[in-house]
TrEMBL record:
Keywords: Copper, Membrane, Metal-binding, Transmembrane, Transmembrane helix. It holds the Pfam family COX2. The keyword Metal-binding applies. It is found in: Cell envelope. The chain crosses the membrane at residues 9-32. This is Cytochrome aa3 subunit 2. CDD domains: ba3_CcO_II_C. PANTHER family: CYTOCHROME C OXIDASE SUBUNIT II, NITROUS-OXIDE REDUCTASE.
Length: 159
């Protein structure tokens, strides 16, 4: 089989680059200890996504008051929705979202805010937001997750 000289150069370049990328990834992960980003508590948490129904706090997803106008929202994302289905907090509330997925990769985005997370099965994903203005906030899945992806949403009502 005849391979053109330029094709040979390009193939060699591609294969070398593949190994360079794998080397960079390997060194940063194993030698430099790089990990997925830590949460707001400063630690990285994982969870067995197949046993969520028996793993606190995800066995009972809920909104919990943890301080003066401060809440913790433990939520699970699944095809195609979120649990709990709707949250209600007073205006000015700071909500710490603690979210994981029951099945595949989902999104957790609140348009008009800085909240935009990927929700990964097996990982606990966290962010927080202070809802200064009253209103209805839409929570959307922005990672394609299946046939009803575009219907996957929930609401946060700020009174
Ligand atoms: Cu869940 Cu798209």
């Amino acid at each position: 089989m005849h391979i053109h000289r330029l094709e040979k150069i390009w193939l060699t370049f591609g294969i070398i680059m593949l190994f360079v990328f794998l080397l960079v990834l390997g060194v940063s992960a194993f030698a430099m200890g790089m990990q997925p980003p830590a949460n707001y508590c400063g630690d990285y948490q994982s969870v067995d996504s197949t046993r969520l129904s028996e793993t606190p706090p995800f066995d009972k997803p809920q909104l919990r008051k943890i301080g003066d106008n401060e809440y913790e929202a433990v939520m699970t994302a699944f095809a195609f929705g979120y649990s709990p289905n709707q949250l209600e907090v007073p205006a000015g509330a700071t909500v710490h979202f603690v979210v994981t997925s029951k099945d595949v990769v989902h999104g957790f985005a609140i348009p008009g805010t800085n909240v935009n997370m990927m929700v990964l099965p097996g990982e606990v994903n966290q962010t927080d937001h202070t809802f200064a203005q009253p209103g209805e906030y839409l929570v959307l899945c922005n990672e394609y997750c299946g046939v009803a992806h575009e219907l996957m949403q929930t609401k946060i009502i700020v009174k």
